[in-house]
Amino acid sequence: xxxxxxxxxxxxxxxxxxxxxxxxxxxxxxxxxxxxxxxxxxxxxxxxxxxxxxxxxxxxxxxxxxxxxxxxxxxxxxxxxxxxxxxxxxxxxxxxxxxxxxxxxxxxxxxxxxxxxxxxxxxxxxxxxxxxxxxxxxxxxxxxxxxxxxxxxxxxxxxxxxxxxxxxxxxxxxxxxxxxxxxxxxxxxxxxxxxxxxxxxxxxxxxxxxxxxxxxxxxxxxxxxxxxxx
Length: 230
Fold this sequence. Notes:
Helix content is 76%, strand content 0%.
């Protein structure tokens, strides 16, 4: 779990710097930062999604995961959690919940999160998580300059999600063959495309409601490993 703690520290440091820049930078610079993050998120998502070798599994996982997430209303619950934190700590930032949700998705859905957390759990090698920590720290500067302190509070769900994967890999590592990790990453890529569309303001996407697709793809690959391969 050491890598996850370093990741958290990097995000807090980056957010603090971003908050400082927010007071000094003109709005047009913050806007262009945000546009770059959105475009890069879409690019990253496409590159990850194209790695799939089980397109049918991916489609079914996204549909069933979306249905489950919509039933559980994950997006609304996380936003409610953000509003609670905002009131609890008397934070005046109007985009607090948006910052928390956007940062969490950006930091947790990438392939480095999934592969790095599993590698840390299986072997104790923290290198990928440490690389991710640097990337997240840099990203948090731009995110916090645009969305504010909500980005810092994303470390709470990040700790649960990323730390949870690491602990699962420690105890159930043999259950995760390479193809499962690859397909989880590919599904995560589709979610990142949706996040990028949301960041750019093209269309509001309830990406968190599709998050259960990451679990669904594992179940499908486990039950039907060779069905519909491309």
